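Weekly structure sync, notes
Attendees: PL (lead), two postdocs, one rotation student
Agenda item 3: pending single-chain targets
PL asked that the sequence for the first pending target be pasted directly into the notes so everyone works from the same version. It is reproduced below exactly as submitted, 202 residues in total.
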Amino acid sequence: MEPVRKQTAAQTSSGGRPRSPRIHQAILKAAVDLVLESGSRAISMDDIAARADVGRMTIYRRWCNKAAIIMDAFVARVDPGTLFLPARSYTESIRLQMRSMAKAFRGKDGALIRALLAEAQFDPRLAVELRDRWTMPRRKMAISYFQRGIKDGLLRSDADPDAIIDILYAPIYYRLQMGTGPLSDAYVDEIFDHAMKGLRKV
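Predicted structure, written out during the meeting:
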């Protein structure tokens, strides 16, 4: 998974000057702020350019549409902090990863993912970006991690990695979307403990 889209040599040399990281970040921030204020359907590439105080061609040299900008902004904000990291045990790494995701979703990033999920129902391009840039890369990462646990005898040999993902993470997204309660560490631990009773090899 990549937090931002890589630039080609032709793109970075356009106009004879390298791309400015400051301008790039300003555009991403502008996109996030506008989505949180108005929703993605209500904003345009020109709106993002105006908020970032850059020319519209500066935007178009980097991204083909606003959905790509929004997803680059979202992935750059959320993805690095919600990966599987080393812990004292294999299963504890899963718990900590779930907690990290819930923590991210408790704040502005949660409001952003709610907006993206809602807007994707009406914006086909955003739906594709959301699936290709967020959902499927993360499922691929998680499947690989759970397959390792199955191979090492830490999870049941008959466990389905796809089902494990749904068991562990669907409750977090449901609570985020429906607002049925806080995404607290205690709630995450409850999901995790119930799931592990059925998933650990006995």
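Discussion points:
- The CA atoms of residues 139 and 166 lie 10 Å apart.
- Residues 78-199 form a domain with the Tetracycline Repressor; domain 2 fold (CATH 1.10.357.10).
Action: rotation student to compare against the earlier draft before next sync.
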